[in-house]
Write a structure and sequence with these properties.
Blueprint lengths: L1 H35 L8 H23 L7 H19 L4 H64 L8 H32 L7 E3 L1 H18 L3 E5 L7 E3 L1 H17 L6 E9 L2 E8 L33 H11 L4 E4 L7 E8 L26 E5 L3 H14 L3 E5 L2 H10 L4 E5 L7 H10 L8 E5 L4 H10 L3 E4 L4 H15 L5
């Protein structure tokens, strides 16, 4: 009986391993075939692992069959071999789904890779966002530091041009005008740098309204008159009388035209002509600026819109400029929903810049006309006292000159927010000129405390700051300031703002 049982166990053992060997090796073969049939053959790690596992199991089972001995094998091992054989047969019967299994395994792997890439991309985006914020803060800080000394240059040059402290010779007036133009050019460059940064970050919002294009062009003409006269360039406006109103932000539209007309003047031959044309095309108005100047090579036409790009080599440039104007023009036109393009037949054959604007649905605002001639400055302070809160000595003296020499008032000066609060409680001023970036207590906090004190709650406050971003202006007004003027300012600009603020608050001298 024992011999018969041993023979039976041996047969079961051999049969299980035969079935296991054939099935496992078949599974490994089928996996290789499924991988080979794929359109884009690429080893799938999970498929390779399964193939190697079944290959190892099949070879082990074949080795057991070859050795042909079941001595020392327990019934439990025989049962385990049969279960393994049954599992291998089941895997073999599913050979039609191997391709799907491999594809799913690849999808899982691709998903894991894409998930890792997405996390890495999110980390990069966060880092880029942080760097963009740092760049914006850096530009704001640099512009603040540049505007502060520029305020003294612009302000004192205008005071001298007004001949407020004595008559100047014609040559001295000419030199002062050159100083002022140079300072204005530097201020324009600072503004362009800030505008490019804001446009790239999507932080410029337009306030479009219905405008008569002719009125905006007239304002642009007054802005570029000095540059045109210096180069003996005639600026001609050729606009049809029936041109419809456009929907645009007035200040940004003027900026677009000033950049284009200024470029045309700069690159025109002395004694030449610049033309401003416009017309209607379906639901849009097109505006063109033409010149007969140096022209643009065809290969440069697409590159001139890049920030800081210069057609001329930096070391051989005959014309000034930062290379920012056209980049700003394109982004502002696109924000208006229009397109801009440049055309030129080549070097020395002039150029034409054309952009489009949407036609306004409502009639044009009547207030969009050219600026009124400036009113003469009157001594509206008439002995009243103005508290100047400013930590820059040159700017202090400039403000003092505006208060005392132009407006007939008296100036008291302090350099910190704490001192301002003390002086205001000691003697209530008629007006406060408040710098926002003060050592210690900030100008925003000073304005809030002045408004909270019953003795100074009604005193007009004008914020004066080299910070020119909209958020700083809004935060100053929210803190309690009545008006805001950005550095650099001209004496006339500050004097008129003070007069307007006093008149609004009904505290001007009778």
């Amino acid at each position: 009986m024992r011999g018969a049982a041993s023979l039976s166990a041996d047969i079961l053992y051999q049969a299980a391993n035969v079935i296991l060997a054939v099935s496992a090796l078949g599974v490994a073969t089928m996996i290789v075939a499924a991988v080979g049939r794929r359109r884009n053959w690429r080893p799938e790690p999970l498929a390779i692992v399964f193939c190697l596992v079944f290959l190892a199991v099949g070879l082990r089972a074949a080795l057991r069959v070859w050795m042909a001995s079941a001595s020392g094998v327990s019934p439990v091992m025989v049962i385990a071999d049969w279960l393994a054989a049954a599992a291998a047969v089941a895997f073999l019967m599913l050979y039609g789904r191997y391709g799907v299994f491999i594809d799913n395994a690849e999808m899982v792997r691709d998903y894991a890779e894409k998930d890792r890439e997405a996390r890495a991309l999110a980390q990069v985006n966060e880092e880029l966002r942080r760097l963009d914020e740092l760049k914006s803060e850096f530009l704001a800080m640099v512009s603040h530091e540049l505007r502060t000394p520029l305020t003294a240059i612009v302000g004192y040059s205008r005071l001298l041009l007004r001949q407020a402290h004595g008559t100047l010779t014609p040559k001295q007036l000419e030199h002062q005008e050159a100083i002022f133009r140079g300072a204005q050019r530097l201020n324009d460059l600072i503004n362009d740098l800030l505008d490019v940064s804001r446009l790239e970050a999507g932080r410029i919002e337009l306030t479009p309204r219905s405008l008569e294009l002719r009125h905006v062009v007239e304002q642009v003409g007054t802005v570029v008159t000095a540059a045109a006269q210096a180069r003996r360039i005639q600026v001609r406006t050729l606009l049809p009388s029936d041109l419809p109103a456009v929907q645009a932000d007035p200040s940004r539209l003027q900026q677009i035209l000033v950049n284009l007309v200024g470029n045309a003047i700069k690159f025109s031959t002395p004694g030449g002509e610049v033309r401003i044309l416009a017309g209607r095309q379906r639901d849009q108005v097109w505006v063109a600026v033409e010149d007969d100047g140096v022209g643009i090579a065809r290969e440069e036409l697409t590159r001139i819109w890049d920030p800081f790009y210069q057609v001329e080599a930096p070391m051989r440039r005959r014309h000034g400029g930062s290379g920012l104007g056209l980049a700003i023009v394109r982004r502002l036109v696109e924000l208006h929903g229009g397109v801009v393009r440049a055309e030129s037949e080549g070097e020395g054959r002039g150029s034409r810049f054309t952009f489009t604007l949407p036609i306004a649905v409502m009639p044009a605002d009547t207030i969009a006309r050219g600026a009124e001639p400036p009113m003469p400055i009157e001594a509206v302070l008439a002995g009243r006292e103005v508290l100047i809160v400013e930590d820059e000595r040159a700017t202090q003296e400039l403000m003092r000159a505006v208060v005392e020499d132009l407006l007939g008032g008296r100036a008291r000066i302090c350099e910190s927010g704490e001192h301002c609060l003390e002086l205001s409680r000691e003697r209530t001023p008629a007006l406060v000129l408040l710098d926002l970036m003060l050592p210690g207590l900030s100008g925003w906090e000073v304005a809030r405390r002045l408004r909270q004190d019953p003795r100074t709650s009604g005193v007009p406050i004008i914020a004066v700051s080299a910070l020119s971003r909209p958020q700083e202006r809004e935060s100053a007004l929210h803190a309690g300031c009545d008006a805001y003027v950005a550095k650099p300012f001209t004496p006339d600009e500050l004097a008129r703002l003070m007069a307007t603020t006093l008149e609004t608050q009904d505290v001007a001298a009778p």
